[in-house]
Design brief:
The chain is α/β, with parallel strands linked by helices. It folds into two domains: 58-143, Orthogonal Bundle (DNA polymerase, domain 1); 149-392, Metal-dependent hydrolases (TIM Barrel, Alpha-Beta Barrel), CATH 3.20.20.140. The chain is 40% helix and 9% strand. The radius of gyration is 21 Å and the shape is globular.
Length: 395
């Protein structure tokens, strides 16, 4: 990942948003790729850095702050500032950091600003950094929520995540960082699904860049075995139902998530035909966030389409309907998820994570799956990688 300069150099970060993101079934108007809403995202707790009775690891403190900011859906540049500072601190080493802190020169290090310097200095002094304490306090109410045993059991059954992004498109972290975070959560695999070229606002991958990414993934898989990064893409469904990537490349990928990101308000008949054509394509595997709705902040209404026709097509061709776990999406609505099940569809419970801290959002999708009585055997990412790949190549 390119090194990011701490935007707090010379000034403090703005106060963090307080309160939890609501989880309504209703929605309002908005636009695709609108700014992220405020509020902390639902996610299970992760242990904080150790207590103030002993010296803390400044790198761990900075990384924990970045992780909590990711879960809170803070802007990518803010997260990168702390991850960049953590990388810089790690390279400098504890002796160098201690020397610079003693003379007030931590900001001499590239990517270290006022806020990150304070975090490092407080950690070296054996204190809980104030910035981290505040974030942990805001995270505590959601972390303390009680998880239904059936939801926890389903989350434990998940072997991987079929929809994730890296800094090759609009994600905030390198591929290896995302992969290691998924592995550390207990997954056996993660599917890398960066955006396709038409979505320029998200730095979608051209055919050449995608080929370069595939080479890197092959190298990382050698390093990280037996954990696997499965190749994939979140390919744009074009207005005519075509797919926004070269056919030969799509055919070579392990898993293809197809999603609508433009013209979300087109009329129902046209949208239905658009989605059906995409699901009839032999290279698609998963229908991503099918309504396009946003349920927090300014919101965005659902796209309108004939759900019976679309889900019947998915079932007929063996395609999965995604349960998108992002707190601002929670897509599809429960009524449509039940309809997809009635048609015999399989599902994939995915995070659509753009940062490591967001990989824990799968619990949100598990809650919705349990609420709609989704059978565990119909969740494709409870399968091992070999079965998942066999399924993806069968339609």
């Amino acid at each position: 990942m390119a090194e990011a300069t701490d935007p707090t150099r010379g000034s403090e970060l703005a106060p963090e948003p307080a309160g939890l993101a609501p989880e309504p079934e209703g929605f309002a108007s908005g636009s695709e790729l609108a700014p992220e809403p405020e509020g902390l995202a639902p996610a299970p707790d992760r242990p904080a850095v150790h207590g103030a009775d002993s010296a803390l690891d400044p790198v761990a403190a900075l990384e924990r702050i970045a992780y909590l900011l990711e879960q809170a859906r803070e802007p990518t540049y803010r997260v990168r500032a702390f991850r960049s500072a953590a990388a810089t601190a790690g390279k400098a080493g504890p002796e160098r950091l201690t020397e610079l802190a003693a003379t007030g020169r931590l900001r001499d290090l590239r990517g270290i600003g006022d806020t990150t310097a304070n975090v490092i200095a407080e950690a070296l002094a054996g204190q809980q950094p104030h910035y981290l304490v505040r974030l942990e306090a805001e995270h505590k109410p959601e972390a303390a929520r009680v998880i239904d045993p059936a939801v926890a059991e389903l989350r434990t059954a998940l072997r991987g995540d079929c929809h994730t992004h890296s800094d090759w498109s609009d994600g905030g972290s390198p591929i290896d960082v995302m992969a290691r975070a998924a592995r550390d959560l207990g997954h056996a695999y993660v599917v890398l699904t960066d955006h396709s070229p038409r979505l320029t606002i998200a730095h979608g991958l051209s055919p050449e860049r995608l080929r370069q990414q595939l080479e890197l993934v092959a190298e990382l898989n050698e390093e990280m075995a037996p954990f696997r990064i499965l190749t994939g893409i979140e390919v744009d469904i074009l207005e005519d139902g075509g797919l926004d990537q070269d056919e030969d490349l799509l055919a070579s990928l392990d898993v293809v998530v197809a999603s609508v990101h433009s013209k979300l308000r087109m009329d129902s008949e046209a949208m239905t035909l658009r989605m059906i054509r995409a699901m009839e394509h032999p290279n698609t595997d998963i229908l991503g966030h099918c309504t396009g709705r946003i349920v927090v902040g300014r919101g965005r209404p659902e796209s309108t389409f004939d759900a019976d026709a679309v889900f019947a097509t998915c079932a007929r061709h063996g395609k999965a309907v995604e349960i998108n776990s992002r707190p601002e999406r929670l897509d599809p609505p429960k009524r449509l998820l039940r309809k997809a099940l009635d048609h015999g569809c399989v599902v994939s419970i995915d995070t659509d994570a753009h940062a490591p801290g967001q990989l824990e959002w799968q619990i949100n999708g598990c809650e919705r799956a349990v609420a709609c009585d989704v059978p565990v055997e119909r969740v494709v990412n409870t399968w091992d990688a070999e079965r998942l790949l066999a399924w993806a190549s069968s339609h």
